[in-house]
Amino acid sequence: xxxxxxxxxxxxxxxxxxxxxxxxxxxxxxxxxxxxxxxxxxxxxxxxxxxxxxxxxxxxxxxxxxxxxxxxxxxxxxxxxxxxxxxxxxxxxxxxxxxxxxxxxxxxxxxxxxxxxxxxxxxxxxxxxxxxxxxxxxxxxxxxxxxxxxxxxxxxxxxxxxxxxxxxxxxxxxxxxxxxxxxxxxxxxxxxxxxxxxxxxxxxxxxxxxxxxxxxxxxxxxxxxxxxxxxxxxxxxxxxxxxxxxxxxxxxxxxxxxxxxxxxxxxxxxxxxxxxxxxxxxxxxxxxxxxxxxxxxxxxxxxxxxxxxxxxxxxxxxxxxxxxxxxxxxxxxxxxxxxxxxxxxxxxxxxxxxxxxxxxxxxxxxxxxxxxxxxxxxxxxxxxxxxxxxxxxxxxxxxxxxxxxxxxxxxxxxxxxxxxxxxxxxxxxxxxxxxxxxxxxxxxxxxxxxxxxxxxxxxxxxxxxxxxxxxxxxxxxxxxxxxxxxxxxxxxxxxxxxxxxxxxxxxxxxxxxxxxxxxxxxxxxxxxxxxxxxxxxxxxxxxxxxxxxxxxxxxxxxxxxxxxxxxxxxxxxxxxxxxxxxxxxxxxxxxxxxxxxxxxxxxxxxxxxxxxxxxxxxxxxxxxxxxxxxxxxxxxxxxxxxxxxxxxxxxxxxxxxxxxxxxx
Amino acid sequence: xxxxxxxxxxxxxxxxxxxxxxxxxxxxxxxxxxxxxxxxxxxxxxxxxxxxxxxxxxxxxxxxxxxxxxxxxxxxxxxxxxxxxxxxxxxxxxxxxxxxxxxxxxxxxxxxxxxxxxxxxxxxxxxxxxxxxxxxxxxxxxxxxxxxxxxxxxxxxxxxxxxxxxxxxxxxxxxxxxxxxxxxxxxxxxxxxxxxxxxxxxxxxxxxxxxxxxxxxxxxxxxxxxxxxxxxxxxxxxxxxxxxxxxxxxxxxxxxxxxxxxxxxxxxxxxxxxxxxxxxxxxxxxxxxxxxxxxxxxxxxxxxxxxxxxxxxxxxxxxxxxxxxxxxxxxxxxxxxxx
Lengths: 664, 339
Known about the structure:
Oligomer: heterodimer
Largest sheet of chain A: 7 strands, antiparallel
CATH topology of the largest domain in chain B: Immunoglobulin-like
Strand content of chain B: 15-25%
Strand content of chain A: 5-15%
Number of domains of chain B: 2
Number of helices of chain B: 6
Radius of gyration of chain A: 38 Å
Helix content of chain B: 25-40%
Shape of chain A: elongated
Distance between the termini of chain B: 12 Å
Number of strands of chain A: 18
Number of strands of chain B: 19
Helix content of chain A: 40-55%
C-alpha cells in the first residue's frame, strides 16, 4: 500500500485561471484574518491547500457526500460561533466558509467564475469592519487580481501575466469615471433599510460617561485620533479651544456621572464673528458630539441640551463628519432653576470633610463674593506644591481630601473634580466637563488633530452675574498644557508616551511618528473626500447645479447628463484616436470615384484596372473622358512609379483635382 | 430549393419548432446583410452583443452589493460596487471591440469522403492594432476551440463540420463569437462566407479492379480525339493538364502551350465502368468506382471513368482525379445544397 502523499491521482484537466484564483482568494480574504475567529481562516486555508494538492495531483476532489457534510459543518460552526448566519459578522464568516468549500468543488471554468464573484463579495464585506484608506488601496489590489483571473478564465489560452495585469489594470482605470459618477449621483438614503447597521457592539473608546480619578490619565497612552477639525476662518488660540463632550453634575463622593434626561434647548444660531468649523469624529459608540465651547450652531441632525452638551439621535458607530459654530468667550446667560441649583450644589454628606472646612473658611473671609472664592481656590493650586503629573500616587480614604491635602499630585481630572467639590462646599454651583483640549496642528493638511490622549477635564461654576463660567484648574498648575498642548508640558518628560516628547527619541520612533502623522493626513483627506459623502453632501452637490437631490427627475437628469457626457467624451476620444483605415490616398480616391459612379451602374469591377475602368466610363460618359484620363494617369503613377516626395504630392493633387472634375 | 434546409427544422418536437423559430429570427435579424462570398469584414452593423448567464449572475451579485451599501450607508461599499459596475459596463465595449474590424477569409474546404467530417477554416486578419483573444467559430451545431489573433497579424480558425453523405454542399452560416475579457457578455457576428463542401462517396474496395486489357473493348479506340493532328504525341494544353506534362521544346518552338499526350502511344487506358459493377445500389457502385479511381490514380496509368450519361478521360494526373471524384460526388445530385 502506498502512503497518502506518495499516491498520486490523475490531475484534473488544466483549468484556465485556477492559479490566479488561488492567488486572489487569500489576498481578498486576508483583512478578515483580524476580524474573524481563527477557525474561519483555518478552514479557508485548509481548503486552499487541499485545492492546491488536487491541482498538483496529490489529492482527489472530495466526494459529493463529503461536500454535503462539509457544507453542513460550515453552517454549524458559524451557528455555534454567532448563533445566527445573518448579520455582518456571521454572514461574513459564512461567506468565507462557502468560498473555501467552493474551492473544493471546482470542476469547470464556470465554478472558477463563481468563486471569483464570491471573492469580489469578500472584498466588500471587509468594509463592515474597516474603511481606512489602507484598506481601500488594498482592496484595489484584490479587485485587480480577481479581474485578472476573470480575464484569464475567458482568455481562451494561457495568457502572459504581463498582458493580464495590464488588461485588468486598464479595465479598472476605465471604470473609474463611471464609478465616480454613480458614487456622486446615485440617490443616497439616510439610515438603514433593515436591521441595525452595527449588530455587534465593541467597547466604547475614548471618553466614558463616568469620571473617576485616573480615567483620563489612562487615555494619555492612547495616541489614536479622536477628532479632526478644519476651521473655516482664523484658527482660535489653543488656550481657547475647549472641545466640550460630556457634562457631569452628579457626584457620589468617588466620581462623576454624566447628566441624563436633559431637556433640549434651541440654539442661539450663528452670528458673524463666531468660529465655524468642520469636525470628523472617529466612532465613539456613544451619542455625544464634541463641540467647540460654547456651541451656538450645531449640526442639523444633533440636539443641544440645556447643559450645552450636544447629542445625536443615534449611537455613532461609524466615522461622522459635522459642522458647528462656537462663540469662544460668551456662554449663554440662562437663569439657573432652583432644582438645578440644588443639583449642582449636592455633595454626599460624608464627602470631603476637610475640603468643606477649607471652603467654609473662604466663604467666611469673602462673604458673598463668589469670584473671590474661585480665585482663592486657583491660588491654592498655584501656590501650594501641587504637581501636574501622569503618574499620581494612589489615593486612600476620601479622594478629594487625600488629593487636596496629602498627595497633591494629579492629572486634569483630579483638579477638575476637586475644584468642583470645593466650589460646592462653598455654596457655588459647580459641575465637571470632559472633552478634548490642545491637539496637534497638522500643517500639511491644515487641520487640527485631537487624539484620545488630548482628553481633558475642567470645571464650570455658576456665577450670578455671568452664568456658567469655565474654570480650568489645570491652567493654573500647568499653563503650558493649555497653551501649547500636551507636548508643551510633557515634551521633556522621559515617562511620557513617545508621541508627546520633543527630544531624546531614537530615529526609528521618530520615523514611526512621522509615518503616523502622514497616515493621519491621508486618513483625513480620505475622510473628508470620500467617507463623509452623505445625503446632506449630495444635496449640496445637486444644489450647486440647480437640482434637487430628493426629486427622482433631478436624479435622472443628473445621471443621464453625466453618463451621457461621459459617453460623448469617450466617443470623441475614440474618434480622435481612430486608426487610419489602411487604404492609401490613391485607393481612397478610386473608391470614392467608384461609389460616385455606382449611381450610373458604372461602379468599378474588382478585376478592372484603373485604366480599363477609366476607358469604360469614358465610353459611357464622353464628357468625363478628360478628367478620367488624368485620374487614371495620376493613380497609376502614385501606385506604381518611383516618386520623390515632391512628385508624390503633385500627383496626389492632380488625382484629387481630377476626381473633383469628374462630377456627374 | 428552399425547403431542403436544416435538418433540425424537420422534426415535429418542441425542440424542432424552437429551432425553426430561432432560424427565422436569425434570418430576420440578418436580412439586411448580403451574402459574404469569400471574404467579410466584421463591421459595426453586424456585431450583436448580449449578456451571458454569468453576466446576469454578476448583475444579481451587484444588486445585493448595492442593497448592502445602501443599508449600511457604507461609502466604500458603494465605491467598490460602482467600480465593478463600471468594469462590467466597459466589458461591453471591450467584448465588442474584440470582434469588431476583423477580416475573415474562407479557405477552400478540402473535399472529404463520406463519413469523414469536413474541416472549415477561416483566416482571420487583424488590422486595427489590437490583439484579439478567445474567438470562437461555430457553424451548424459544431463549435470550435478558441483561437486568437495577434495585433496586425492573421491566424487561422477552424472547426470540424458535421459529416455529410455524398454530394456537394454550401457552407452553413458561421457564427464568430467572443466572450473576452470577462465572460459577462457575448459578442457575435453571423458570417455567410461561401465555399463548396464536396463529399466524395466512401471508397469500397471491390474484389477486382478492371485491368487495362479488360477495358479494351470497342469504345477504347474512340478515345484519342482530334488533337491527333499534331504529331509527336503532342496536343494543345487544356486547363487541368499537369504542368510536368508540358512539352517545353514544342512550346519554345511555337509559342503555344503543348502537352505530351499520354493517352496516345502509351499503354491502353483503363476504363472504370459503372456497368462493370454488379449490384443494384447506385451508392455501392459509386463507392466501388471511387476506390477504383483512387487505385488507378495511384498506379499512374491513364484511366477513364464511365458513368451513365457521362464519360471522363482517359487521362492522368491530379486534375483528372479531381474531375472524376467530383463526378462521383455529384452523380445524380446536380447543384450544391446548403449544408
